[in-house]
């Protein structure tokens, strides 16, 4: 898009700004599934602000290369809108429609203004369409990156929630594991356990694998690494929840757990932990 074409398009947008905004707003609202007065007001404000930024960029001679410095403010606004749409639960198509809905009313004013110059009209429609396609794709790109960040953050939060470290007694921690262990989750397990050891000064950590469906070589290695890290922090580990099938699998795999204390149940492991810490539980009897 040449400088003359950019300036000409900016002039058309400025000349018909109010009507253009209304036509654009109607197009956007026709595709919105969720409506409320606050959303409509925000959409109008965003539309008016975008038209001003678009006109300014075009008046400065900005072509269709939206990575050029003249488009910085426009891109910044579209990025903010895309991030907001992610938080509000809109789809990428709904987000991009903010740009694409402007095409039809703008093309209508281009046809009216350039009706007497068919060749110029065709060229203007083509270059304007290309510009808006790039702006629309930019909003989709930003939306997808923001959405991926949200998903990664949610996955991390779920990992942390699925690996709680519980203080059972003074100096005794329990880490009940449920589900499959992989490298990412094991890293979270290790970090949470070590942090809790530091916070509580615990000397015993019980890792309960009752809820782990299968134990393969990789899972066993992850457990051994976690135990080794805990020992470096001054805490011994007991593995509980060793079911017969898992015991057979561990033996079959040749995994060496000889220097790791194992127990069939969490209760058994807790009794051993109490003895090691010199703690006892007395059962009181009610008098009559």
List keywords for this structure.
288 residues, alpha/beta, Globin-like, Transcription Regulator spoIIAA, 2 domains, 5-stranded mixed β-sheet, Bact_StressResp_Reg, phosphoprotein
Account of the protein in words:
Keywords: Phosphoprotein. By secondary structure, this protein is of the alpha/beta class. The chain has two domains: 3-159, Globin-like, CATH 1.10.490; 166-277, STAS domain (Transcription Regulator spoIIAA, 2-Layer Sandwich). It is built from eleven helices and five strands, in the order H-H-H-H-H-H-H-E-E-H-E-H-E-H-E-H. It has helices spanning 3-15, 17-31, 37-59, 72-88, 92-100, 103-113, 118-161, 183-200, 217-232, 244-253, 266-277, and strands at 166-169, 172-178, 204-211, 236-240, 261-263. The protein has a five-stranded mixed sheet with strand order 1-2-3-4-5, sandwiched between helices. Strand 3, helix 9 and strand 4 form a beta-alpha-beta unit. The termini are far apart.
Layout of strands and helices, then pairs:
Layout: H1 3-15, H2 17-31, H3 37-59, H4 72-88, H5 92-100, H6 103-113, H7 118-161, E1 166-169, E2 172-178, H8 183-200, E3 204-211, H9 217-232, E4 236-240, H10 244-253, E5 261-263, H11 266-277
Parallel strand pairs: 2-3, 3-4, 4-5
Antiparallel strand pairs: 1-2
Helix pairs in contact: 1-3, 2-3, 3-4, 4-7, 5-7, 6-7, 8-9
